[in-house]
């Protein structure tokens, strides 16, 4: 599997690359080599309620893309029958609410509006005996 690290503009807001471990050194090397071509067509912004990620996806139809959200990690990949191959993963600084998020592919640009998950306070008060 090849996972692209986030472009330099993302590094300030990302905790770490989505791939880790020394066992994947060759995959990281190849992924980094391909990253420079992807960086030019990638933008990232955020506000109080959401992250917006825009990626150039020329030649790929929406039927050929798969987007998965797992906590704070967003994985984008082309399906096997797609005319072009694409695979990337981004780890965001906060978990994403997939139910409130949306994706739009228009004129070769994939725009993901990823809603930030509202943190839930799970603290409990203990009675002192």
TrEMBL record:
Full protein name: Hsp20/alpha crystallin family protein
Domain of life: Bacteria
Residue ranges annotated for the SHSP domain, each copy included: 33-129
Listed Pfam families: HSP20
CDD domains referenced in this protein's UniProt entry, alphabetically: ACD_sHsps_p23-like
InterPro entries assigned to the protein according to its UniProt record, in alphabetical order: A-crystallin/Hsp20_dom, HSP20-like_chaperone
Family: Belongs to the small heat shock protein (HSP20) family.
């Amino acid at each position: 599997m090849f996972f692209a690290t986030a472009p330099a503009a993302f590094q300030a807001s990302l905790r770490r690359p989505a791939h880790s471990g020394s066992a994947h050194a060759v995959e990281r090397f190849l992924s980094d080599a391909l990253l420079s071509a992807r960086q030019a067509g990638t933008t990232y912004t955020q506000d109080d309620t959401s992250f917006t990620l825009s990626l150039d996806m020329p030649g790929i139809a929406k039927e050929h893309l798969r987007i998965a959200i797992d906590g704070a990690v967003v994985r984008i990949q082309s399906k096997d029958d797609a005319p072009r191959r694409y695979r990337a993963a981004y780890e965001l600084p906060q978990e994403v609410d997939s139910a409130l998020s949306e994706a739009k592919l228009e004129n070769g640009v994939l725009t993901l509006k990823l809603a930030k998950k509202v943190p839930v306070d799970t603290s409990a008060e203990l009675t002192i005996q």
